[in-house]
Amino acid sequence: MQEREWPLLTATALAAAALAPVQIVVAAEFLSIDDAQRSLFAQAERFEEIIPVLTPAQKKAVTELAGPQPPHRSLRVWRAMRGTSLLGHVFVDEVIGRQDFITYAAGIDLDGRSTKVEVLAYRESHGAEIRGAAWREQFKGREGLGQLRFRADIKNIAGATLSSEHVTQGVRWLVALWQVTLRQGANPAASGSQ
Amino acid sequence: MPFPFSAFQLPRSASIALLATVLCGVLPRAYAATQEELEARVQSLAEQLHVVQVELATLKQQRGSTTPTPEVSSTPAVAAATPDAGSGGPTWFGYGELNYTRPSDNTAQTTADVARFVVGAGYRFDERTRFVSELEVEHSVSSADDPGEVEVEQAYLERAFSGGISGRAGLLLIPSGLLNENHEPTRYYGVFRNFVETSIIPTTWREGGIAAQGNTANGLRWDVGLTTGFDLAKWDASSEGEGQESPLGSIHQELALAHARDLSGFAAVNYTGQPGLRLGASLFSGGASQGQLGLPSANVTLWEGHARWTPAGWDVAALYARGSISGTRQINTTLVGNPVLVPKEFFGWYVQTAYRAMDNGSSSLVPFLRYERFNTASDYADIGLGLTPAALPDRKAWTGGLNWTLAPGVVVKADYVDFQNSPVGDRFDLGIGYQF
Fold first, then answer.
1. Among B127, B319, B357, B385, which is most buried by a count of CB atoms within 10 Å?
2. Helix, coil or strand: residue A39
3. Which residues on chain A are in Cβ contact (under 8 Å) with B91?
4. Angle at CA B238, nearest 5°, toward B232 and B239?
């Protein structure tokens, strides 16, 4: 390798490292990522991970669409594939509960309908009631942000208010992200790179 | 609002590197590039970066990289990525409330107070093991000449096991009622906590011991524990103070050199399987004489049931709690002549409704109305004619007010309390509260 190529390679490697998502370790988990993917898109044959790349304008658009957000820690996104057909996207996200992060998964199909939510790991002493199937099923079939309003559409869990509100806000973020970058017909530059 | 994903934010050094990359690859011909061409090049660069990620990860794996392998399947690109989610240093949190209260019948008793100032620290040792603590200062200044108190409100280690079960050891909150585990000012209506969950359930009630909790997928949560309990030697029969205000509040030990010969046990269940609904009940029972000289064997038992329902904009709650102390006949025989003997029974209940009149996602306006009926000495053990105290009359109170959430975690409150059987206790309250 010629010496003059090193700066470019180094810069590229640094940039790549900076873009790499934070690793999600799910040790005290209820579900593995594999299980969550299959639960959200049972008909998918494989899941191809992508890294969304957003322009500043897209970031702003997502932020405005999603509304108030709790701190997030990391995000991973997959395309759910059956043969050559794209079925939808699977997201594994982490949002703060009160003191610690909740790892959860949600899916969005090609029509923009959200799936139920799966809780992969819940790390706090109080609030694990969001694991309840009935609460998580509330997200299923919601079409867009207008049907993902906390309390109005997604019922609160008394005693687990922060966890239920923050996961709801997190799903709103995912839907906004999908609308701006991943929806078919969205700006090509916004599409995730495989 | 800042972009919430750190994963999308480049560190400064990486930003410079990325900028250099873009400049090297794009700038020489940028003058001729259209917007579409530039976007295509950005997309191309992103794809190239991903390829480099994969290659780096593969190289690391081939060289026996010490980077922890994820416990779930993932692409090499993610395996190359960074830190263990289990370590992140201490976490800090807190809550507090500042109140103003003006008694209607005695305005000279009007007070303003930093009622609570609480800071909490947590630390995660690994993905399954964590420490949680809360340190509280009540009434601003704590010294021999001031009314304040400094209290460790929670301090426990928690270990998560499989199947949604966790175990705890240390100073724990007892899972009793709707408020005890959710006692932050942003969680309840009114400037002060309701009377029942203050006088009958001594919120914030904590004991030292061990406990286990489980949560099932069908919305059932259960708690069991073995802890320290109450100490009847702390009962102050000589003055009409805390004993009549809160029988259990006057004999709780808060793990401050707690007498621990007689342990207590608790069990609680809560059902949240129907979204918006919470149904629950709890039982706490244990010895309270602690083997101390002059105290006959005695037991304290407290049970309660509660419900909360939040259909579209409404928040309806109800709670019933009843406590009893056994062995009070023998104890009170030794206390005859004092103004406040130990009650055999005490109880309380309330119903509450609130309506979310305005809610724009980050702020809300919620008026509420609550009716309470409670009695801190509804029955005494018979110690003989003329010696057995008369039971206290039930106290009945309406509380109506407004919770105005300014921003998530910040609340301004106002309420008025009206006691039905006596003007004593009627008051106007203002308060601010926060939680982070």
1. B319
2. helix
3. 99-100
4. 105
What CATH number is attached to the domain comprising B274?
A: 2.40.160.10
Q: Quick one: tokens of B336?
A: 């005859």
- A42 in contact with B, Cβ within 8 Å: no
Which of B50, B174, B363, B435 best probes binding to A when mutated, by most A CB atoms within 10 angstroms? B50
Query: Do B367 and B413 form a contact (C-beta atoms < 8 A)?
Result: no
Q: Mean pLDDT check: name the lowest of A21-35, B354-368, B415-429.
A: A21-35
Q: How many domains does chain A have?
A: 1
**Inside any domain, residue B33:** yes
B77-101 tens-digit pLDDT:
332 222 334 446 899 999 999 999 9
Residue A146 structure tokens: 């207008």
Q: What residues contact A6, with CB distance under 8 A and at least 6 apart?
A: none
Task: Report residue B337 as tokens.
Answer: 């002549």
Name the nearest CA neighbour of A156 among B364, B427, B5, B51.
B364
What is the three-class DSSP state of A179? helix
Question: What is the C-alpha to C-alpha distance for residues B11 and B314, in angstroms, rounded to an integer?
Answer: 45
Contact: B43, A193; criterion CB under 8 Å: yes
Q: Picking from A10-24, A61-75, A95-109, A179-193, which range would have the lowest pLDDT averaged per residue?
A: A10-24
Closest in A21, A27, A173 to B127, CB measured = A27
- Extract the tokens encoding B261: 């010969």
CB contact under 8 A, A18 and B56: no
Indicate if B315 and B223 belong to the same structural domain: yes
Query: What is the complex's ipTM, to 2 decimals?
Result: 0.76
Amino acid at site A31: L
Amino acid sitting at position B363? S
Contacts of A52 (CB under 8 A, 6+ apart): A75, A77, A177, A181, A182, A190, A192
Q: Is B1 a member of any domain?
A: no
Interface of A with B in 61-120 (CB under 8 A): 63, 67-76, 94, 98-101, 103
